[in-house]
Amino acid sequence: LRANGHKITYLQNITDIDDKIINRAKEEGLDWETISRKFEKIFLQNMQVFGIDSVDLYARATAYIPEIIKQVKTLIQKKHAYLIEGDGYYFDLATFAEYGKLSKRTTEQAEDAVSRIDASDKKRNRGDFALWKFSSAEEPGWKTELGFGRPGWHIEDTAISEHFFGPQYDIHGGALELQFPHHEAEIAQQECASGKKPFVKFWMHSGLLTIEGRKMSKSLKNFVSIADFIQTHPPEIFRMMVFMHHYRSPMDYSGQLVASAKKNLSDLGAFAIKLKM
């Protein structure tokens, strides 16, 4: 798009507080911020190693707590959210009839991918999700008008994007597995808060990375980090592996794929030399 002369602002949010971060901090005996900043630094270094310089802005969720609170309050005022005492504020799916329009799934399926933060036996609907979750004194949280707590998983994205782009913008990306329920929740939140449709004009969902046909997992002992990869292969090889796939298609990592990427890169290099002769 930039090569064609379009002016693009590429914003990427960083989820720096969630269940996994809190649990990891407890396991390692550290505070959540230390853990969060550690992996943020690794991520940004990896982006630099691979030569990915297209992102203009990185936005940490915890830097936009006032914006998150503002959006939650708007949803409460418009009766799209409700309070569960001692738990937090939840989005009421019954107030948004179009939930599931992106993934073509229903509200009955919304519990399929609910995180621990959304789990409550007092919810009005099975798939209702947390907007603001109250924290105990031992857990990380922020003192706000809504009470001491932290953001739900979905609300940070729409609060941040509304801050920078307003209630509507052009392109939203993410992995295919985020289409439901994460992106559906974003649509519900923002369209209910602003009353404007569509929230986003174009959705781009990238295929997932597998290893020899299986999901990458430490428990399966098939986990390969970027640091591991670049110890034995130049970054250009990984870039070529990605270029060999349509962005929506899954990429199955294997020795054969690495070999094919090396050959393609070598062939392109040889062709470039011929052009200069």
Characterise the protein shown here:
The chain is of the alpha/beta class and 277 residues long. It is 38% helix and 17% strand. The protein is built from 8 helices and 11 strands. It has helices at residues 19-28, 32-49, 65-77, 155-165, 179-194, 226-232, 235-243, 255-276; strands at 11-14, 57-60, 81-84, 88-91, 130-134, 149-151, 169-175, 200-206, 209-211, 214-215, 251-253. A 4-stranded antiparallel β-sheet has the order 3-4-5-6, covered by helices on one side. Strands 10-9-11 form a 3-stranded mixed β-sheet. The protein has a two-stranded parallel sheet with strand order 1-2. Strand 7, helix 5 (179-194) and strand 8 form a beta-alpha-beta unit. Helix 1 crosses helix 2, helix 3 crosses helix 4 and helix 7 (235-243) packs across helix 8. 23% of the residues are buried. The mean pLDDT is 93.
Question: Which key terms come to mind for this protein?
Answer:
alpha/beta; single chain; 277 residues; three-stranded mixed β-sheet
Offer a quick outline of the entry:
The protein is built from eight helices and eleven strands.
Q: How much of the residues is beta strand, in percent?
A: 15-25%
Largest sheet: 4 strands, antiparallel
Which whole number gives the mean pLDDT? 93
> What is the SS-derived class?
alpha/beta
Instruction: Report, as a whole number of angstroms, the end-to-end distance.
Output: 31 Å
Shape descriptor reads globular
**Total number of beta strands:** 11
Rg over C-alpha atoms, rounded to the nearest angstrom: 21 Å
pLDDT < 50 runs, ≥5 residues: none
- Helix coverage percent of residues? 25-40%
Q: Could you give the order of the helices and strands?
A: EHHEHEEEEHEHEEEHHEH
User: Helical region count?
Assistant: 8
